[in-house]
Amino acid sequence: MADQTRGAATSSVDDFFRTEIRAGRIERAEVFAKARRPAYKLWIDFGELGVKRSSAQITARYGVEDLVGRTVVAVTNFPPRQIADFMSEVLVLGVPVEGTDEVVLLAPDADVPIGARVA
């Protein structure tokens, strides 16, 4: 089996469990015209955590109309980041498609409670 950690910093299990990864549902999406690279502004409902904002560079694979109502997985306890005139509060998770600009969003394959933490 190939070494999957080559070049990556090692993290502990404790590091992973401190990272809050939760399911959320996209309520609103719009083109982020002021972003340096093509992106969307997303408003994501995380249940008891409320609606959080995110800037996501997922325009190569998804249109705005494809996103509203979609369940996504995001890190919810990283510090907010200012991106142009928008405060991104969560990091939506996806997998880049090698050789393209596409990012495939990570999502549960069945209905899950909004705001539920990934275990």
Rg is 15 Å
Mean of all residue-level pLDDT scores: 93
Low-confidence stretches: none
Multimerization state: single chain
Percent helix: under 10%
CATH-level-4 superfamily name: Nucleic acid-binding proteins
CATH class descriptor name: Mainly Beta
How do the strands of the widest beta sheet line up side by side?
3-2-1-4-7
List the total number of helices: 2
Task: Examine the secondary-structure arrangement and name the CATH architecture.
Answer: Beta Barrel
CATH level 3 topology: OB fold (Dihydrolipoamide Acetyltransferase, E2P)
Keywords:
119 residues; mainly beta; OB fold (Dihydrolipoamide Acetyltransferase, E2P); two-stranded antiparallel ribbon; 2 helices; 8% helix; tRNA-binding protein; tRNA binding
